[in-house]
């Protein structure tokens, strides 16, 4: 189907032409597959408006797989940390009981499947079977060998099989319901497939798509921004400051620097300095409830990063890298974030009550520029 402009999609939602909504795995990945994230939790809103929320079985399995992989990684790291701490401190503690409290012996896949099952039940999603009806696999293989979307003429075509089954089964479901399905996915393959489909419409951003199902609430969002901008930098509304501190505490980022030596790095800290008032985006309403409204806002924040660098020189005599120095470095960078705010619908004057704040960002790579391995030493002294 040809790409629709926002106005056309809003009209089709309003006149009932779009009665189904679906979401790709990449949208869940954006929020780290944390199914309790406020934006993902708002997907339960479709139960109240008569719009079907559909999830392909492929997407469900991929979400569970991604959660399982992350859970097994944190489980492994936690087990090792417990054992190392117990041994180093000579505690002689029996870790079985503690392990039960933190589920370190539970199969990660079992825990992931349980999380996904609870989430699907909470949002009222209907699962679209991967097999579909009829010989769906034959159509997938026809598209694969004829290089028809979502397959492309490249060596990695086999990785597009899950998308093919997801899209064709969703299209089949739309045909049976005789309706359009609004699919949210940043994947260009999904968008390309939809161009040739009479039943699927693909848009890339979840929060924007959700806003089309909700009232604008312009007065509330305008008052929120005015309230925020009334606080002079570097101060922040306390609820937002606390959310940033929680998010950045122990935040992992990649670090690099300019140096003539080999080095390894370890992130030390990330701390918010202030938010640029000129870089606060327009709030997007993702859920409108009788007592509260949930919205997302794109902002740019100044963040201070500190990392430790361990420098090594190569010893050509024995072929080893020899440790020569350690230096900590600090730098401030502008970083884009997405903030999800839940605010009280009732306003007293110009005051806005912020009920909940969640902060999200993509992976970060921080360039510290030139870091001198020997900042305080005599430059004429032989170092290695």
Overview of the molecule:
The protein is α/β, with parallel strands linked by helices. The chain has 2 domains: 6-211, 5'-nuclease (Rossmann fold), CATH 3.40.50.1010; 218-370, no CATH class. It is built from 12 helices and 12 strands. The protein has helices at residues 6-14, 25-30, 38-41, 57-88, 96-101, 108-123, 136-146, 161-177, 188-195, 206-211, 218-229, 238-248; strands at 18-23, 52-56, 126-128, 180-184, 200-203, 254-258, 262-280, 284-288, 292-315, 320-344, 354-360, 365-370. The protein has a 5-stranded parallel sheet. Strands 7, 8, 9, 10 and 11 form a 5-stranded antiparallel sheet that branches. A two-stranded parallel sheet has the order 6-12. The radius of gyration is 25 Å and the shape is globular.
Named CATH architecture of the largest domain: 3-Layer(aba) Sandwich
Mean pLDDT: 86
Order of helices and strands: HEHHEHHHEHHEHEHHHEEEEEEE
CATH fold group of the largest domain = Rossmann fold
Derived structural class: alpha/beta
How many individual β-strands? 12
Major beta sheet, strand line-up: 3-2-1-4-5
Percent helix among the residues?
25-40%
């Amino acid at each position: 189907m040809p790409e629709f402009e926002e106005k056309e999609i809003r009209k089709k939602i309003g006149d009932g032409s779009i009665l189904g909504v679906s979401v790709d795995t990449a949208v869940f990945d954006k929020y780290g597959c944390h199914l309790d994230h406020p934006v993902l939790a708002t997907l339960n809103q479709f139960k109240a408006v008569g719009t079907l929320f559909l999830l392909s079985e492929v997407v469900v399995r991929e979400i569970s797989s991604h959660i399982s992989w992350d859970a097994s990684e944190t489980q492994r790291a936690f087990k090792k940390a417990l054992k190392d701490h117990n041994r180093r401190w000579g505690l002689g503690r029996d870790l079985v009981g503690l392990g039960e409290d933190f589920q370190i012996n539970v199969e990660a896949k079992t825990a992931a499947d349980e999380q996904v099952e609870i989430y699907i039940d909470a949002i009222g999603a209907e699962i679209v079977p991967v097999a579909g009806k009829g010989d769906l696999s034959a159509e997938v293989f026809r598209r694969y060998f004829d290089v028809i979307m979502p397959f492309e003429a490249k060596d990695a075509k086999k990785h597009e099989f899950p998308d093919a089954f997801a899209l064709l089964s969703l299209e089949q479901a739309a045909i049976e319901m005789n309706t359009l399905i609004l699919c949210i996915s940043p994947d260009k393959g999904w968008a390309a497939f939809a161009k040739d489909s009479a039943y699927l419409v693909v848009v890339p951003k979840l929060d924007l798509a959700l806003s089309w199902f909700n009232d604008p609430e312009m007065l509330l969002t305008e008052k929120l921004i005015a309230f925020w901008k009334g606080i002079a930098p570097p101060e922040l509304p306390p609820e937002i400051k606390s959310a940033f501190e929680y998010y950045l505490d122990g935040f992992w980022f990649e670090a690099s620097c300019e140096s003539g030596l080999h080095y390894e790095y370890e992130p030390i800290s990330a701390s918010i300095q202030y938010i640029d008032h000129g870089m606060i985006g327009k709030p997007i309403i993702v859920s409108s409830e009788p007592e509260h409204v949930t919205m997302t806002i794109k902002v740019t924040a100044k963040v201070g990063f500190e990392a430790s660098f361990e420098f090594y020189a190569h010893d050509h005599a024995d072929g080893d890298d020899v440790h020569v120095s350690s230096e900590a470095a600090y730098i401030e960078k502008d970083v884009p974030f997405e903030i999800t705010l839940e605010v009280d619908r009732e306003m007293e004057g110009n005051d806005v009550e912020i009920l909940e704040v969640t902060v999200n960002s993509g992976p970060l790579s921080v360039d510290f520029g030139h870091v001198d391995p020997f900042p305080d030493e005599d430059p004429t002294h032989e170092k290695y």
